[in-house]
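Response to reviewer comment R2.3. The reviewers asked that we include at least one raw input/output pair. We reproduce the pair for Phospholipid-transporting ATPase here without editing.
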Amino acid sequence: MLTNAIKTSKYNLFTFLPLNLFEQFQRIANAYFLFLLVLQVIPEISSLSWFTTVVPLVLVLSVTAAKDATDDIVSTFKTYNTFCFWSLFPVRLRSEKWMDVQVGDIIKLENNQFVTADLLLLSSSEPLNLVYIETAELDGETNLKVRQALPVTGDLGDDIEKLADFNGEVRCEPPNNRLDRFTGTLTFAGQKYSLDNEKILLRGCTLRNTEWCFGLVLFGGPETKLMQNCGKSTFKRTSIDRLMNVLVLCIFGFLAIMCTVLAIGNWFWEVREGSQFTVFLPRQDGNDAAFSAFLTFWSYVIILNTVVPISLYVSVEIIRLGNSFYIDWDRKMYYARNDTPAEARTTTLNEELGQIKYVFSDKTGTLTQNIMTFNKCSINGKSYGKIQDLAVVRVDFSFNPLADPRFVFHDHALVEAVKLENPEVHAFFRLLALCHTVMAEEKTEGDLFYQAQSPDEGALVTAARNFGFVFRSRTPDSVSIVEMGQQRSYELLAILDFNNIRKRMSVIVRSPEGKLSLFCKGADTIIYERLHQSCSKLMDVTTEHLNEFAGEGLRTLALAYKDLDEEYFDQWKQRHHEASTALDDRESKLDQLYEEIEKDLLLLGATAIEDKLQDGVPQTIEQLSKADIKIWVLTGDKQETAENIGYSCNLLREEMNEIFIISGNSPEDVREELRSEQVLRKLTSVKGVKAITDEVVNGEYGLVISGHSLAYALERSMELEFLRTACMCKSVICCRVTPLQKAQVVELVKKYKQVVTLAIGDGANDVSMIKAAHIGVGISGQEGMQAVLSSDYSFAQFRFLQRLLLVHGRWSYLRMCKFLRYFFYKNFTFTFVHFWYAFFCGFSAQTVYDEWFITLYNLVYTALPVLGMSLFDQDVNDAWSMQHPQLYVPGQLNLYFSKRSFFKCALHSCYSSLVLFFLPYAAMHDTVRDDGKDVADYQSFALLTQTCLLFAVSIQLGFEMAYWTAVNTFFVLGSLAMYFAVTFAMYSNGMFLMLPSAFSFIGTARNSLNQPNIWLTILLTSTLCVLPVVTYRFLLIQLCPTINDKVRQAKAKLPTPPRPTRIRRTSSRRSGYAFSHAQGYGDLVMSGRYLRRPAVSRSSGFAHTGRATTGFSPMGRSAGYSPTGRPQNVKVPDVQVTSLQMYRTITD
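Raw output as returned:
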């Protein structure tokens, strides 16, 4: 039976060895070395022992396997598997781990517990069997949602015996990834009941404000909807890895050509010259020239195999591991508040961080903190909240025993106005305390907890609470508040709810004195259209304040009210009842009634709420944009909210030529919007379907597309049109998208754009796109750890992405490219000398170097210097990298290592090998020592050639390094010293006497290296090898300098880090806070289904007044913003103050 255990690892105990070996042998070089091993066991071919290949190959495979196993263990998902819960077994509750849950179990959840299986809600502790859940890990929204059990199961309550006897049968849809839909039936007690999404608790939800609930497990483990959206773990390989495979194939082809040329040469030599040696070296039976050439081919395959040395892959793994440690150790990416360091959860993708072109980001918890704060307000023409002096202490709310201690405000003028009983200020906060759909929970006296359907609405009610107007409780027909210490109850007669068209919310209440009033809040332009003419001057001043607030990126809202006539309201209520029960054109009739009553309003003022971004988000996005990195926001939140954040974090800007909105509800509508004349007039169409290249567009554009439109845009027939439009926009925001759609967008860009992608998120709803992107980054946020556990890199704040890419990513890419260029250069040069020597040794497969030099060349003499460069080199330091984001662009264009640079490296090696062979050959031809003895022997030539080679590659390494450290210097000079020490030791008399066959170069070092002409040859050879490099680089810097050259020349000292400043923008765009609302909360409040048990008894208790009324039906979900003009910043003298009918405070 399927269990509820889940994992994010790639391997298990049984699949690790075959899967890991399969993955490693996808590297063509590893397969090549395995082939070499087979050749080396054939004695007629190999002149080297088989263990010379077996040992390094096994070592490489073992080290890589150990590293992969470690990475996989780190990513294994253990947290949720070990959560404990209460399970019904058989007539009692017992504690078990979540991983042991099975379909059909009945389990008990308690408040704040994480739901880790898909459950059918059976019963709960709340009235009408409601539960409140947070779905942040599913859709990124932290506003709570309501689920309700069937009445027939709700009657089971928490009776263990009844629950144990429950024998219902559930038939439902098979496992799927649709988070917004569930279809099924429950058969119980002979009756069949319909099941939908409102009765299901999905894995990823968190139970809130509900003491307990019972649920029946429907799906567990990988069959849950959340895990169906997570996608599969894939083997991620860098673009350099993929390029290496192509280059290795090219090298193999070139190796085959070289071996073929040498084999043909051997055939010619055997035919023309070899017959002369058969007298004293007779051939074996049947071995003619052709067979000799055949054997020679395979012998040279073994000798020339150093063009792809196995040490290359060992070095690559060490470099990646070292650069991963730099990320782990970076204190500038450490978040002290949560004690969270950055973590490289994989060690194989570091250089890919230096090539990112597209970043796909979640919004909630990634860009934002999802914390709304009451920042500023304008009341009756006066602005509050400005802080002229940063040293001003926060306002003391000790006068209010019910104030929220976490609320911070610095403008003392506003609290003084409240204390002085300014009537306009009191009316302002009274509106905020009454006009909302917030629920209050008070478990202990004075300890209020607001259950807001959106965090911004909670911020407004909390602000009213702190300034003395405390929302205390509500019933379906009343709202109880405490006004400056006095409890008052207002009769709630109607809630005119938000929707996308209205962009406002109103409540109609009757005060304790019997006065009827309508309180309204909404988008400023919508409210302005409904104001009384007497408010014109006040409106001008408030507009000036609104422009100022919006320019700071705050979410603004206008407040207004009007007094109602009792007789008129009775007639309006009757007409509303008729309209709400009409069968035809119901919504338009209700709209007309709402329009009728919401006019001739009197303006009170405006609020400004800050949707807190994470620290440094606007600056990070600005820097990444300068690095030519395109950022797409993929969020499950509403369009208006996503747009707001887009403007706040500089993703969308007022300076953009246009922002395209794609919101069609059918394939035809979406296609029409994508093909619209407006879009085509701005954007040039792109031909071809294999790949879409970037085109230059005049101006900057943004694109916003909703989730239902995106579903059509991602269809095969339309995906290219969507992608080519989106790719020409500076920024893209996809809202109301499902986790699977996030992954589909990433896959679409990967499919048609030859670029490297990165996805960053903090919730379980981001796992699918994190796995789909080339690089996945998890943020240790408020939405659990599943995104982190599925990611390749993790840290605590979005701003650290800038340092991860511009510093660590760029350095890792630059170091890896330098390493590969130099490694191929030194090994090609080493190998090509063998090729030239073959023409002078009868193509006999004799090596030009001493066998010990061949063994130690890559292992000892050149290993540490190149590793030192690859671990410590910097073209510019981290401060310059951050200050000049343009330095990142070459990585996106693969300018540092590509096929072109590889072939340039090969040509350079070919030239160097010619110099290294023919110059020593010419220098030693017919040469004698200064004492007259012959020096032109094979051993002396081999020593001279290998010494020249080591000096040449060491000097070349010095030119490659841009940042010399003590470690690098020690490695370079130490390797040369090691060469001479080992050479003199192995060529000594003592070693020859111990093993004559292994150390045959007796006395060669001391006999050759004491001759001046030998050192002159070394100097000339080294100079000729590096002279073209020096000349080329000098001309390049003078005639065509790169961005790196320009920065290094312009900077003579460490730049002063720019002082962080708040980005201030001027905006004509303003928005209300109501975007986060869902449809129908007005109806929910008025119906009483949402209400909890009565609050605890309070010492200042009072009796509710008023009569019950019929609730009014809502009209949809929350509203958006509306653009408005920007007046000049001029003072308007003699503002006409709106007269207000104030309520007399009475004690109930």
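The chain has a mean pLDDT of 81. The two ends are 62 Å apart (CA to CA). Further pairs are available on request from the corresponding author.
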